[in-house]
Amino acid sequence: MSEHNDKIEQLATRHKFDEPVFVTRPTMPDLSDYQKSIAKIWENQWLTNYGPFYRQFQVELMQYMQVEHLTLFNNGTNALMVALQALRINSGEVITTPFTFAATSHVLYWNNIKPVFCDIEPETFNIDPGKIENLIGPDTKAIMPVHVYGNPCDMKAIEKIAQRHGLFVIYDAAHAFGVQLNNRPLSDFGDISAYSFHATKLFSTIEGGALVSNSKSRNDRVHSLSNFGIANEETVIGPGINGKMNEMQASFGLLELQLVENEIAKRQKIAIQYRKFLKDIPGVRTLDDIPGVKHNYAYFPILIDAELYGTDRDNLNIILRKCNIIPRKYFYPLCSHYPCYRSLASANPDNLAVAEKTASQVLCLPMYGALTSETVDIICQMIKSIHEIYVTF
Ligand SMILES: Cc1ncc(COP(=O)(O)O)c(C=O)c1O
């Protein structure tokens, strides 16, 4: 054991980065371009409430996303909150995945809905359609899947189930900006899709988000609910929220939109480099591209099989951090382990075997366009060397 430790310490000292290599880094527009946008906001004297930048961003985003009905939000969580209210889902149960960020379950809780956790598929880590029907009961109102890491859910299978049982489908598409299936946006499926434009996402408006709906009337309702339920100066349609995107966010988003395809292309190269190197290391699994999908390479998850790799995901995480490489255990712990949900019947780990195993093995490696190929190479070398140290001694 101490032999391992010595070797690991030597490795960490040899390869320690001077600055932390975080799991992601925001894509920033040129500062002088943003300064020009800010100057325009000062000139307009219009800071929020659907100003000129909001409207221009909305139009350009709809063109980029190939969608017809879109409302911008101040963050993705409020977008999801409003999606539920727009469909009048404010009681009962919604079937969702435990393998996601906290916001997915929390928006259900805040809407007085009981989350019902469904296991995930081992290939994509998305909700397993084969396990949804068993969870449907008299109180089920909707299914809320997540396109985890931007990989599309099995939307056709989910749609069939929803139709059979008269359920709504709300996609948490927080990770899926720019992803297409057969040249069409993922938001073609389901009743509403919710995007996040948080700074850690591939495409950001600092904080922000959007809802894409499949009809004008639904989008009108979403729009009103994002503005306190106000439909016009004299009509309030219901208990809305303040979900409005402001002009600083919208103008940032307009500049980001010009950068996003280049950012995706850079990330694709990094993903290819990671996969090429890591595929030969025993116990390290990477995800492949899916035929027909235009991926966004938002994240680079790997799975560590401790028996083959020689040590487990947690130890690998600790060692990488010693070298100033900061991966993240997305998504550990599962939402079903949070104190607020763990007493639910559906949170029983026995029914969530794939999610439990995935959460114990997954590690998201650094992924952003500005990551150099030299840095990726060193991260891969480290992962290989750590394996070699543990299997040799
Ligand atoms: C899957 C998922 N859903 C919802 C959200 C919430 O989005 P936001 O941070 O923009 O509120 C996030 C990310 O933050 C997320 O990863």
Secondary structure blueprint with pairings:
Blueprint: H1 2-15, E1 21-22, H2 31-44, H3 52-65, E2 70-73, H4 76-86, E3 93-96, H5 102-110, E4 114-117, E5 140-144, H6 155-165, E6 168-172, E7 180-181, E8 184-185, E9 192-196, E10 209-213, H7 216-225, E11 230-232, E12 235-236, H8 247-278, E13 284-286, E14 293-294, E15 300-304, H9 306-309, H10 313-322, E16 325-326, H11 353-361, E17 362-365, H12 373-392
Pyridoxal-5'-phosphate (PLP) binds at residues 75-77, 100-101, 103-104, 146, 172, 174-175, 196, 198, 209.
Report what the structure shows.
α5 (102-110) links the parallel β3 (93-96) and β4. The strands form five sheets. Strands 2-10-9-6-5-3-4 form a seven-stranded mixed sheet, sandwiched between helices. A three-stranded antiparallel sheet has the order 8-7-14, with no helix packed on it. The chain has a three-stranded antiparallel sheet with strand order 13-15-17. The chain is α/β, with parallel strands linked by helices. The protein folds into two domains: 2-24 and 261-392, Aspartate Aminotransferase, domain 1, CATH 3.90.1150.10; 31-255, Aspartate Aminotransferase, domain 2, CATH 3.40.640. The protein contains twelve helices and 17 strands. The model has no long low-confidence stretch (mean pLDDT 97). Pyridoxal-5'-phosphate (PLP) binds at residues 75-77, 100-101, 103-104, 146, 172, 174-175, 196, 198, 209.
